[in-house]
Each structure stands twice: as C-alpha cells, then as structure tokens.
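Tutorial handout. Part one gives the primary structure; part two gives the three-dimensional structure as tokens.
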Amino acid sequence: MSHPALTPLEAARWAHRAGLVLPADRHAAVAATADHIHSVVAVLRELDFGDTPPAPAYRVAATRERRDAAV
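Part two.
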C-alpha cells in the first residue's frame, strides 16, 4: 500500500508536535528520511513469517546447546 510523501512542512509540524527543534534547512532531509523509513517498514510488513517462532525461542535453544567439541 503506498502512502503520500511527507512534505517538508509536515515534517516540521510533526517535529514541533514531538517537542523537537528542527531548523528550517533540515525539513526536507527529515521528510526524505522519514519517507525512506516508511517504505522499508512497509516491505517488512508484507513478509510472511508463517510458523517462525519469536526471537526469544532461539535464545532458549542456544543456551541448551551442548558444546563438546575439542579444539
């Protein structure tokens, strides 16, 4: 699903709402960065992880692993 690009003026407004001081010369760069992050997150949301267990399951499995190898 596409989204409308964040304008520099909207980036400034959102920064102000968050209590951040954003110099005028940074509005366009912040808007472009936010758009890029949004596009990456959108791709991640489309991934089908199926039966992949959550990350903590891998940590538990790794701590149970026996290390008997001789060097």
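Part three, for discussion. The chain has a mean pLDDT of 85. DSSP finds three helices and no strands in the chain.
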